[in-house]
Amino acid sequence: MRMKVFVIAALAFVSLVSVIDGSEHEAQLSEFVNDALFSSVSSKQPSQPQPLMVPITVINGAAAKGAVCLDGTSPAYHFHPGSGSGANSWLIHLEGGGWCNTIRNCVFRKTTRRGSFKFMEKTLPFTGILSNKPEENPDFFNWNRVKIRYCDGASFAGDSQNEANQLQFRGQKIWLAAIEELMSKGMQKANQALLSGCSAGGLASIIHCDEFGSMFPKSTKVKCLSDAGFFLDAVDVSGGHTLRNMFGGVVTLQEVQKNLPKSCLNQLDPTSCFFPQNLIQHVQTPLFLLNAAYDAWQVQESLAPHSADPSGSWNDCKANHARCNSSQIQFFQDFRNQLLNDVKDFSKSSPTGLFINSCFAHCQSERQDTWFADDSPLINDMPVAIAVGDWFFDRKTIKAIDCAYPCDTTCHNLVFK
Ligand SMILES: *[C@@H]1O[C@H](CO)[C@@H](O)[C@H](O)[C@H]1NC(C)=O
Fold first, then answer.
1. CB burial of residue 18 (10 Å; 0-12, 13-18, 19+)
2. I need a surface site. Which of 45, 267, 319, 325 has the fewest CB within 10 A?
3. Residue from 326, 328, 331 to probe ligand 1 pocket by mutation (most atoms less than 8 Å from CB)
């Protein structure tokens, strides 16, 4: 059996947990898990060609529009121009990286690349859906491709401030300033456009999908892809609501409700309207959900975080799915069933697309090994890149839902050491 395991160098993970005593440590730990999960370069890619490295661009005049990172510095993006048949096609990819939900962890975030331009890498590798090589990215390689950096801590959707702690919560303004600048750089003439994003950026691509669509004329083909953005309002291993509590903090602190769909807010509280399960029915623009059924971030941070399992009885299982016992696997199956139930109506609508594979993974569009490679994950023999391309170009209907764990032998499951 071909079982690929992708080991994440998270040596300090288990020992860190035992010394956590405050939200700053939680924030650091969370950042650490995020860094591990978002690393687009897997430790097991010896023979990959050198990825395209793309320099950062500061958004002109963003600060004058009040569009700033948590610490007041300018937001930024990485842009690689399209060519040939892709010269008028645009892919806008929103970076992910968790959220900040308290003054304390937002203040901490100002000292990281997720909260300040000062700490951002000034070049980034473009791999997977961002790759410029047709053999790595068959449908989007020659498009104009943009990765917008994430430095607001609320999925590009907050709009408030905290003066006492010199915090700016300007995600919505960053989103608008970035799109405005890209429009002026040629995106206004796009004949097709795809808004994508992973994790917190995948949630942002759902939140901003219709707004993105409305910026183009009707004749432009516009769609959205959410990768690992389907965060469930789920019960954790102690019966609590870890993620709902966290999202509640994000929404309240950053005043995210200002930018959530009114049609949702008429029915539900703002925190509920930050969850994709309650948002997707309000999205009119064609949307594709790419998600691992046992999303590695949600397993780590929503279902079995340290706070819900202080004795650490889930540590082995959450670090490596192969070490889970039968009741733990059942807990994950219930989580998958909740996910499938939440996307049931969505999948019936014809313009939507789905790729829900039964893997312990996170962010499968940005990593080359999961997007498109000789041994990349498959559902019905179809890799992620082909599923997304076929859906975008209306070549096929894609509603790919995998059989339950452990049936899929093509997964690139994340394992934490
Ligand atoms: C599985 O592991 C959990 C956590 O250690 C434990 O509480 C539970 O009793 C175990 N279940 C079985 C069936 O062994």
1. exposed
2. 325
3. 328
Structure tokens at 137: 């990215």
Q: Contact 326/163 with Cβ under 8 angstroms?
A: no
pLDDT score of 47: 57
**What confidence score (pLDDT) does residue 236 get?**
98
| Closest C-alpha to ligand 1, atom 2 | 325
Ligand 1 centroid–CA 100 distance in Å is: 32
Measured distance CA(343)–CA(352) in Å, rounded? 10
Q: How far apart are the first and last CA of the chain?
A: 22
The active-site residue, picked from 71, 227, 233, 295, is 295
363, 38 Cβ separation under 8 angstroms? yes
DSSP 334-347: HHHHHHHHHTHHHH
4-416: which CATH architecture? 3-Layer(aba) Sandwich (3.40)
According to DSSP, the β-strands at 353-357 and 399-401 are: parallel
Q: d(Cα 232, Cα 299) in Å, to the nearest integer?
A: 11
CB 159 within 8 A of CB 258: yes
Q: What is the pLDDT of residue 177?
A: 98
Active site residue 199: yes
Amino acid, single-letter form, for residue 33: V
Asked if 302 and 228 count as a contact pair (C-beta separation under 8 A), the reply is no
Residue 40 and residue 1: Cα distance in Å, rounded? 26
For residue range 268-307, list pLDDT tens digits in order: 999 999 999 999 999 999 999 999 999 999 999 999 999 9
Residues of the chain with pLDDT under 70: 1-48
Place of tokens 């300090």: 12
Residues belonging to the chain: 417
Instruction: Kindly report, residue by residue over 242-252, the tens digit of the pLDDT.
Output: 999 999 999 99
Q: Would you say the CB of residue 60 lies under 6 angstroms from ligand 1? A: no
Q: State residue 371 phi and psi, 5-degree precision.
A: -80, -55
Q: 229 C-alpha vs ligand 1 centroid, how far in Å?
A: 29
**Which pLDDT tens digit goes with each residue over 62-106?**
999 999 999 999 999 999 999 999 999 999 999 999 999 999 999
